[in-house]
Design goal:
By secondary structure, the chain is of the alpha+beta class. The protein is 15% helix and 27% strand. The protein contains 6 helices and 17 strands. The strands form 4 sheets. An 8-stranded antiparallel β-barrel has the order 1-4-5-8-9-10-11-14. It has a 4-stranded antiparallel beta sheet with strand order 7-6-13-12, with no helix packed on it. A 3-stranded mixed beta sheet has the order 16-15-17.
């Protein structure tokens, strides 16, 4: 019976919350810690009615009265001032001996509680920081092996807002029991005090009831547009003729961006310069004033072309054409410029090769100021004083001079000593550096021995150097050699030092 009563009350409260949900509300979850005091002031009479048990303060001090528990609950805000909920609690319940003096605690059985609650709270505005409330309802308590006990909680509490949807909640209540449970000499009072503290987590507002749309505005009379051009008559300068907005509703029949009222030729597209009339031949004379509207001509000839003689058809009249039988350019008085170098053929010494006016139309490929025909190095910039070729640097001249003294041969032989190879390699580098230069090689001896033998030896030694340079990649076309025997001494053959100087191979670099 007790269980059925509790279930009916819980179902009724949930039905109330569901019925009010359409008006909007908030949902919340509580998590709190309990203090359960079963030793609150209470009086009881035994079965015979002869004995009353009063729990005095000395008995409180003899035992640890307060027991712990926890609460988890769900709450729904029906209105700002009305909240319904269903908290669930679990904890330990202290029992007492009824025939002991002082009364002492006995056992700590678990209890389970489920309530259906109504909270009336004093909330007068949104985001109120402190919200006091009173609470009541109907609950069911089960203490392990005992029968279920129905209780009525009466209490009060305060919600302290810590954040937008987060509260600290403290509460105390007295729970009045329908029944007093007695078991032999053990007296268990289910009337008790419960104190709790914890947190309320607000889950958010329920969807608001949709606002009905405003009533439609009264119908507005459509403005008139007689010509149907999308411009109402009040704003249309030509209300009876369809036109364009940029002309205030007036037409532009030929689409030349000149409205008809300002167009001298409203049905033929034309130019603003001629008040909307065309100039078909683009000769600067409007067609209506042009005797030859499809042929360009000067105004002095009423827009018609002037017929002139031009035998070569180059656009230059014969009487102004310096080359009347050869098509040419107007800027050259009708004469051609075949290579397009800006020098007409009649003045161009190289008419088929682009050049510059400085050289009468002939080219200067390397741009060194020496035309190619006179440039010994036409593709390498050089000096005008050196026939357009770069001058041999002083350091390279020194290498050539050193080779004259540095190349040595085996005694009375044309075999080059290996220690002279680096000297000849330097000559190879010089020749590679100056590709437009040539080199002559001349062999010389002293006057010791037969003249014919000395002549032959000088030729062989010059040839040996010639062959070495070719073997290192120097083109034979850039080299020449000769032997002069003892015919060209550079020192006195009467001394040892003089004869040594006369035994030599000379190298000379030059431009052909």
């Amino acid at each position: 019976m007790k269980t059925r009563l509790f279930i009916c009350v819980l179902a009724l409260m949930l039905t109330v919350s569901a019925g009010y949900a359409q008006d909007g509300g908030t949902q919340g979850i509580t998590y709190k810690f309990l203090g359960v005091d079963t030793h609150s002031p209470y009086a009881s009479t035994d079965d015979a009615g002869a004995r009353t048990y009063e729990f005095a303060f000395d008995a409180r001090e003899a035992v640890d009265v307060m027991q712990a528990g926890i609460e988890i609950g769900y709450f729904y805000g029906v209105k700002d001032w009305l909240v319904v909920g269903a908290p669930f609690r679990v904890g330990r319940f202290r029992q007492f001996y009824a025939d002991r003096d002082p009364v002492i605690a006995y056992e700590n059985p678990l209890f389970f509680q489920m309530d259906a609650r109504l909270n009336l709270q004093a909330q007068f505005k949104d985001q109120q920081r402190v919200v006091p409330y009173i609470t009541t309802g109907l609950g069911a308590t089960k203490i392990e092996d005992r029968e279920m006990d129905m209780q009525v909680p009466l209490g009060a509490g305060i919600n302290f807002r810590l954040a937008s949807n987060f509260y600290l909640q403290v509460q105390t209540e007295y729970r009045w029991s329908f029944d007093e449970i007695r078991d032999k000499d053990i007296l268990s009072f289910t009337n008790n005090m419960q104190h709790s503290a914890g947190f309320l987590f607000q889950l958010g507002d329920a969807p608001a009831k949709p606002t009905p749309p405003p009533p439609p505005p009264p119908p507005v009379e459509e403005p008139k547009d007689m010509d149907g051009d999308g411009i109402i008559d009040a704003d249309d300068s030509c209300p009876e003729v369809a036109g364009l907005a940029k002309f205030g509703g007036c037409p532009d029949t030929d689409g030349d961006d000149i409205q008809d009222s300002e167009d001298d030729c409203p049905e033929v597209a034309g130019l603003a310069a001629f008040k909307g009339c065309p100039d078909s031949d683009n000769d600067g004379i409007a067609d209506k004033e042009d005797d030859c509207p499809n042929e360009a001509g000067p105004a002095a000839n009423k827009g018609c072309p002037i017929v002139v003689k031009d035998r070569d058809n180059d656009g230059v009249p014969d009487d102004a054409d310096a080359c009347p039988d050869t098509p040419g350019l107007e800027k050259f008085a009708g004469c051609p410029d075949t290579d397009g170098d800006g020098v007409p053929n009649k003045d161009d010494k190289c008419p088929s090769t682009p050049g510059s006016a400085a050289f009468n139309g002939c080219p200067d490929t390397d741009g060194d100021g020496v035309e190619d025909a006179k440039d010994k190095c036409p593709t390498t910039p050089g000096l005008v004083s050196n026939q357009g070729c770069p001058k041999v640097e002083q350091a390279d001249e020194e290498k050539i001079k050193f080779a004259t003294k540095g190349v040595e041969f085996e005694t009375a032989s044309a075999t080059i000593r290996t220690r002279s190879y680096p000297v000849l390699d330097e000559l190879v580098n010089v020749m590679n550096k100056y590709p437009n230069y040539s080199m002559s090689i001349s062999g010389h001896t002293d006057n010791v021995g037969a003249e014919a033998s000395n002549q032959a030896l000088s030729e062989k030694r010059a040839k040996a150097c010639y062959d070495y340079l070719i073997s290192k990649g120097v083109s034979p076309s850039r080299l020449s050699y000769a032997g002069y025997g003892e015919s060209r001494p550079i020192a006195d053959n009467g001394s040892k030092e003089g004869r040594q100087k006369n035994r030599r191979v000379e190298f000379n670099i030059f431009l052909k």
